[in-house]
Automatic annotation (TrEMBL):
<comment type="function">
    <text>Catalyzes the conversion of epoxyqueuosine (oQ) to queuosine (Q), which is a hypermodified base found in the wobble positions of tRNA(Asp), tRNA(Asn), tRNA(His) and tRNA(Tyr).</text>
</comment>
<feature type="binding site">
    <location>
        <position position="64"/>
    </location>
    <ligand>
        <name>cob(II)alamin</name>
    </ligand>
</feature>
<feature type="binding site">
    <location>
        <position position="226"/>
    </location>
    <ligand>
        <name>tRNA</name>
    </ligand>
</feature>
<dbReference type="InterPro" id="IPR013542">
    <property type="entry name" value="QueG_DUF1730"/>
</dbReference>
<keyword id="KW-0846">Cobalamin</keyword>
<keyword id="KW-0560">Oxidoreductase</keyword>
<feature type="binding site">
    <location>
        <position position="194"/>
    </location>
    <ligand>
        <name>[4Fe-4S] cluster 1</name>
    </ligand>
</feature>
<feature type="binding site">
    <location>
        <begin position="244"/>
        <end position="245"/>
    </location>
    <ligand>
        <name>cob(II)alamin</name>
    </ligand>
</feature>
<keyword id="KW-0479">Metal-binding</keyword>
<dbReference type="GO" id="GO:0008616">
    <property type="term" value="P:tRNA queuosine(34) biosynthetic process"/>
</dbReference>
<feature type="binding site">
    <location>
        <position position="251"/>
    </location>
    <ligand>
        <name>[4Fe-4S] cluster 1</name>
    </ligand>
</feature>
<dbReference type="GO" id="GO:0031419">
    <property type="term" value="F:cobalamin binding"/>
</dbReference>
<dbReference type="InterPro" id="IPR017896">
    <property type="entry name" value="4Fe4S_Fe-S-bd"/>
</dbReference>
<feature type="binding site">
    <location>
        <position position="244"/>
    </location>
    <ligand>
        <name>[4Fe-4S] cluster 2</name>
    </ligand>
</feature>
<protein>
    <recommendedName>
        <fullName>Epoxyqueuosine reductase</fullName>
        <ecNumber>1.17.99.6</ecNumber>
    </recommendedName>
</protein>
<dbReference type="Pfam" id="PF08331">
    <property type="entry name" value="QueG_DUF1730"/>
</dbReference>
<feature type="binding site">
    <location>
        <position position="161"/>
    </location>
    <ligand>
        <name>cob(II)alamin</name>
    </ligand>
</feature>
Amino acid sequence: MTSNDFVQQERSRFIKAKAQELGFDFCGISTATFLEEEAPRLEQWLLKNHHGQMHYMGNHFDKRLDPRKLVEGAKSVISVLLNYYPEQQLDEGENALKLSKYAYGTDYHFVLKDKLKALVDEIQIEIGEVNGRIFVDSAPVMDKVWAAKSGLGWVGKHTNLINRQMGSFFFIGEIISDLELWPDASIKDYCGTCTRCVDACPTDAITEPYVVDGSKCISYFTIELKEAIPEEVRGKFKNWIFGCDICQDVCPWNRFSRPHQTPEFNLHPDLAQFTRKDWEEITQEVFQELFRRSPVKRTKLEGLKRTISFVTTPKE
């Protein structure tokens, strides 16, 4: 081992230890290079219009595949996972309206960015001036691919990252940096012959294992789509009004999910008592109070009411 290898290993160990201290569940490192295998997959996915109205997915194709085009001189991608699996869940009874678990508490963008900024500060103190940028779903970065390359899990048939120890209910963030670090090895795919996620999707959004047509996903219809929801999917939402967790809920690996340790992600106490009637009669004032710092704010009240009406009105 060269002295440079030793320095890289020591720095990598330091970063992972600090990440753990700051509350991240996992931290892995990969080398910042062009994502050769992903290029044709992404191109095909876009050509098939699987991104629907998410036009931003088609932007910055080259940057999405090469982090060195996002951060000059980038050498490493530091990936972190932060668990959001809740201890207390919303009522999931037959008539209950449902939110994706990631939207129970404070918007993860705020929480992850604060923690990642703190991690960058620790790196600067220990190592010195480092050029790097923080990314939390806010730029053309293929976060699941980088997390998989850094050994934090594999991308499952539902296209979410799966970690062997704690399943898939994680937020992902990155620091792309010019710091030379010791990369981790990727791990193999442990989905095996299981197709539970593919079989369970009520809108057939998982068109084949490892391929999701985003424009058919319940999360797309309830969050991204700004116009009327197509009639052909009425009656298929299983009462999901913001996001959808079906493909994760049925995944056998999520039997290892454990409650998160981040108070900001806890279920809003008022939301815990919400009934179907409360959802149907929600006012601007209640919406503002409940979702002030929540991902649900993205849909605005009109968008949420549109989805609630769609979900609660039976198919003719």
